[in-house]
Here is the input.
Amino acid sequence: MTVSAIRKLSSERYIVCFGEQEIKTTANVIAQFRLYEGRELSEESLEEFSGESARALSREHALEILSRRQMSERELRKKLTEKGYDEATALYCCNWLTERHFLDDSEYAKLLVRHYISKGYGAGRIRSEFVRRGISKDLWEEALDEAPDESEKLSDLLQKKLKGDLSKENIRKVSNSLFRRGFSWDEIRSAVNALGSDVD
Here is the structure.
């Protein structure tokens, strides 16, 4: 097959024409296959070029998605399949990005811990986020172990929400609110007791 035209779509993306057949590709793949107008490719080389072009475009797309925000491997795979890539291509992209440290569930788990703790959430809420985002359970404790001691943060949050009202009804209402934010009943009880108010 003969390269009949190479058309530029953007700074990195091109269309290479082989008569009626058009293949979208990247500048790097064109350079890798040393393509130019008039260049002859065997059927085998054309198939190889087509496959490498598809892989390069999928990698580029995966990098674009990750550049918008960090995410877990499962989240990225889901995004890619939603964009029309098959499971094998999505998995290939994730493996490629993981090998180059662009995608790292361990670091992402630690980022989630810092983010949710800074927003005043407890370990229970963080674990539910790990589940929702597909973080492997064996990474949970490692990420949570690096978290700062929550007791001081919980005490500050409790005092802020109580606003000086230590009535049983207000303590119950605030305790329920803190439980929904992911703090355990034991943590909440200790924080309330530290304020000098016994709670069941």
